[in-house]
Amino acid sequence: MLLAITIIIATGVGFIYKYREHFTFPGGRLSRPYCSASQTALTCMGTDQFIELSFGKVHYIYRPSTTVTSSSKLNIFVHGFSIPMEIWQSVFQKVVNDNHSCLIFDLYGRGWSDAPFLPMNVDLFVSQLAELLYALNLPYEKYNLFGVSMGAVIVQRFTELYPSKVSKLILCSGAGLNVLRPPMLLISILSIPIVGPILFKLTMQQNDSKMVRALWAYPEKDEYEQFKRLFQLACKQHPGYLRSLYSTIFDFNFQLSSKSIESIEKLHIPVLIVWGDKDTLTPVQNAYRYHQLYKESILHIVPEANHSLLIEHPQEALEAIEPFLLDR
């Protein structure tokens, strides 16, 4: 009898833990409302487009080169945990202006892409990118993949699964090695059904916290205020945004396996590593470690730059990116 009660309790606790998001966040596929007839651009990077994929509508922008040939490469930009495609805005626009073909999109649950009620893990985002490319059927045999923070894990996983499609890798402030994780006590509290998600929502909505400001080199400047407003709009307008971030914390493996890195290293793909020397989330030691693991990689350290280097120091990043793209 005691054994049966123990099994029932354990099963109940396991069920509640597994479906903890269902008790606080709305279920189903969630969309950010927008007017398709509106003439107002959603971003400043080009014509905003949407496509229906297996797990929801995906927001993307495609900017082709004026001289696409059979040997042309498509530059694909993948953002990170919370800031959508706009984190690449300055770099994306400059690469477009240099007459390179470019594709940028919002990951599920971010920006203007739908939020499916699925575990937000690396394989979901890799499948999103793979399906997007298949659906668009663009005339490119190979891709240059840009990944920032969490996006660096996604592009490396994509490279591992589709090695013949990748020409170059650009990793900016990349996760995948020793990311500074929240304390285990905090993770344990956040995992408590109902209580955890509510605390998470309250914490994330206070987005001007010391933790957020610590990711910026110059939080007193306009760029910080601009992206703070972007975050606030996402919290208010996208009903699946915070749910997606919450799921990502628990379901996304920010640590790349050594097997993944070894398999990519064997491909001898050119890799550029761009990092801020004052990064408080993915310490600069990770940049040097990546440089050791990818033996033929190029390392570019940006002085005085933090984790938001693409926003605060885009020109310094471009100093390494532009010649890297031109190098055959």
Automatic annotation (TrEMBL):
InterPro entries: AB_hydrolase_1, AB_hydrolase_fold, AB_hydrolase_sf, Hydrolase_4. It comes from the Eukaryota. It is an enzyme of class 3 (hydrolase). Gene3D superfamilies: alpha/beta hydrolase. GO terms for cellular component: late endosome membrane; lysosomal membrane; mitochondrial membrane. SUPFAM superfamilies: alpha/beta-Hydrolases (SSF53474). Residues 76-313 form the Serine aminopeptidase S33 domain. One of its GO terms (biological process) is acylglycerol catabolic process. It is a single-pass type II membrane protein. Its EC number is 3.1.1.23. It is found in: Late endosome membrane; Lysosome membrane; Mitochondrion membrane. Its main location: membrane. One of its GO terms (molecular function) is monoacylglycerol lipase activity. Coiled coil: none annotated. It catalyses: Hydrolyzes glycerol monoesters of long-chain fatty acids; 1-dodecanoylglycerol + H2O = dodecanoate + glycerol + H(+). Lipase that preferentially hydrolysis medium-chain saturated monoacylglycerols including 2-arachidonoylglycerol. Through 2-arachidonoylglycerol degradation may regulate endocannabinoid signaling pathways. Also has a lysophosphatidyl lipase activity with a preference for lysophosphatidylglycerol among other lysophospholipids. Also able to degrade bis(monoacylglycero)phosphate (BMP) and constitutes the major enzyme for BMP catabolism. This is acylglycerol lipase. It comes from Rotaria socialis.
